[in-house]
Structures are given as structure tokens and as C-alpha cells.
Amino acid sequence: MEYSKTTLPNGIRVVTSRMDHVRSASLILYFGVGSRHEPDAKAGISHFLEHMLFKGTEHRPDPVQITEAIEGVGGILNAATSRESTNYWVKVPSEHLPLAFEVLADMVRHSLFAPEELEKERRVIIEEIHGIYDTPDDYIHDVIDQAVWDGQPLGRPIIGSEETVQAITRDDLVAYVRQHYQANRLVIAAAGDLWHEQVVELADRYFGELPAGPEPQLEPARIRDGLPDAVVVSRPTEQAHLCVGLPALPYTDERRFTQGMIDAVLSSGMSSRLFKEIRERQGLAYEVYGYFREYVDAGEAVVYAGTDIEQVGRAIQAILGELDKLRREPVPPDELERTKELRKGRIVMGLEDSRAVASWIGGQELVYGEILTPDEVIARIQAVTSDDIQALAGELFQVQRYALALLGPFDDPEPFRRLLQA
Question: Which residues are in the Peptidase M16 C-terminal domain (predicted)?
Fold first, then answer.
């Protein structure tokens, strides 16, 4: 993969990668602001704003006009909010790249925030909150985040709460976009059948007058390091849903490649340890998986399982056993090489699409300020040793760092807290 980078006079970073074998072009706007930047009383405003940018502009006052502009040429338009960033993306046939720029610029710079649309979208988001709450295997992830981060912004749901979403006003949204959607916090990434100079010209045309602003202030993450914690959400469910979570490395730590290998050994595919042990060997869960989230100054590791109510204790012990095994025993050479090949293959296959390539270069530029090519990342993965994995697992998987979230017909968290300490 080859890429090019230009910084506009106002501080916007433009990164592109030409793909000769495709006829599409993907464009992503990455803003370095997310739910972690919000005040407690306005939790969910980043997500609310993302929704509202689709709800009418000065040039397209009817929200349908926004989607029709892109879908009318066969394109796709969407957005996503995370804890530290928000992105808006379009994928179109490459001859319509100028249209993609024009539509996204219209949304970001000329949204109306019409009161009637705001109230409609408020109701939509509140129903989204209700939907998450009513879906145990979704909601339990909010619970584990709160348990791991203990009242910090990283532990809040990205979507906010019904109370905070109800309180957000039009003035709040207008002020928020002016404060945070600034040139120095914007990365424009594009990939596909395009030329770098073309993208730079379009970026300057549509975003060259976007002002810069102060760098965002973040509350530093505090790592809980005491007795393990257990939280029970009591509901009359037929199945128990549980998450084991703990703090992990930030993306700024060079050992993130080792952390990625731990993630892959535990939970990448049906040949992973969690799947083989908990589902295939012990038959404790149909769904079991893990993931790592990485932020600028902290990270989080989570393992989820849905299990029979009578088997909760065994499932928790089995998960803890797999984590502890990585501390106690080196990963065998054949498993290490197989996992490396899996990771390399997933990287290569995952970059066959123009949107994936735009995400690769744009996401790295936003968070690292530099871009590693797939070959460079694969080389870092290849360099990870069993000793590296065992050492980092020993640092991460310590009993006092664990938190447990459990949803089901249970009342007392104490027996489950004792399981963590066993």
C-alpha cells in the first residue's frame, strides 16, 4: 500500500491511497472528538450531533435530500461515534467523489438543527437507548464499561442516558460543533480510484476555511487497582449474560502489537482458545468472544459469554482459567505461528475495499499522527514472541484488576466476587 499526505494551511490533514484495481472512491471525515470529551451533564451529545447532521442543511433542508444525493448515484453514506472520535463516510463510484465532498461539507458546515427534526431525533435516540437496555447481550457491555472505569467518562455509554439526551438543546449542539469540529482536529481520508492532488484540491475547496481551535482537554484515565469488583443486574432472563473486564494498554504503547496477539490467541475465530475451551470442550456457551479497546492513555479488555443460569460459576472459572493460562504458560510455537498467519490474513483480506483502506490510513493518522503500511504492521506482528505475550499477560491479567458484570436472575454479587478472588 502506498499513501500520500498533505496538511492544509488551516491544519487539516489529508491522506489518500490510490487503488488502481477498483472503480469506487471512499471518503471519510475523522473528527478527534467523542463521548469522552463530553461534560457529564451533556453525555451523548457527540452521538446526538452525528445524528443531527443527517437531518437537513441550508442547501438540503429535507433530510431525504441528503441521502438521495448519495444513493442517487449508487453510493452509501453513514457515520459513527466512538469515545475519542466521530467519523462520517461516503462510498461512491469514483466519478462522483466531488459530490461526496460537497454533501459531507454541507452536513458539517451548514446543518440547520431544525427544532422539529431535533425533537424527532431525540425520540429516536431515546428508543435506541431503550432498545439497548432491553437487549441483555448488548446492555451487559455498558455495565462492564461502568464497572471497569468507575464513574469516569470512559465508562459512560456513548449514546448517553435518557436523562442527558432529554436535556440537550439546539444551542448545545450548535456550540458543540463550533467548539469541536475544528480544522486541527480533522483528518480527511480517501482511497480508491482517485489522485492525491484531486483530493487535496477538493478538501481545500470545501474545508479550507474551517477554523482551527484549541486542543481538546481530556480527564486522564484512572486505573482501578484494588479488590476485584462484581456488579449484578437482576433480571428474570432465561440465560445469564456475563462480561469479565479489566484495564489494558493504550494505543500509544508500543506493546499494542503484543496486546493484539493476546486478543487473537484468545478470541480470533473458531480456533481461538475461548471458543475451543468454553464452547467446544465444555459446552458452556453458544456465544463467547473477547475484544480489546485502545484509547490514548488507557485500554480495556473484555470477555463476554452467554450461558445457562446454572452454569455461571463454571463459565466464569473457565474464562479466568484461560486468562491465567496465558500468564503461566508460553504460547506453543505452532499456535503462535498459526495465530500470526490468521492475523496477517485478516489484514490482507480486510483491505480489498476502498472504504477499508481509507479507514486504515485515516484512523492511524488521527490517533498516531503516522501511518504504518500493512507490511509494516505485519512485520511488527511477526516480531512478537511467546515471551512477550506471557510477560504482558502477567502484567494485565491480575486478580485485583478484574471486574465482572452479570445480568440474570441473581441478587447478590458477593459469591461472584469471591469467584474472581479464588
Answer: 168-341
Residue of 38, 50, 117, 121 with catalytic role: 50
**Domain tally, the chain:** 2
Whether 162 and 30 share a structural domain: yes
The answer on 264 and 142 residing in a single domain is: no
Max distance between CA atoms of the chain, in angstroms, equals 63
Statement to judge: residues 147 and 235 lie in one domain:
no
Say if residues 14 and 8 touch (Cβ distance below 8 Å).
Answer: yes
Residue 302 inside a domain? The answer is yes
Tell me, yes or no, if 50 is annotated catalytic: yes
**26 falls within a domain:** yes
- Domain-located, residue 215: no
Q: Which of these, 5, 13, 95, 25, lies nearest to 355 by C-alpha position?
A: 25
Exposure string (b/e) for 276-293, b if CB count within 10 Å is 16 or more? ebbbeeeebbeebbbebb
pLDDT tens digits, 16-69: 999 999 999 999 999 999 999 999 999 999 999 999 999 999 999 999 999 999
For residues 54 and 62, give the distance between their C-alpha atoms in angstroms, rounded to a whole number. 9
For position 224, what pLDDT does the model report? 75
3-state secondary structure of 190: strand
Query: In this structure, are residues 235 and 359 in contact, taking their beta carbons and an 8 Å threshold?
Result: no
Model confidence pLDDT, tens digit, residues 385-396: 999 999 999 999
Same domain, 8 and 63: yes
Other beta carbons within 10 angstroms of residue 41's beta carbon come to 11
Distance CA 304, CA 307 (A): 10
401 in any annotated domain? yes
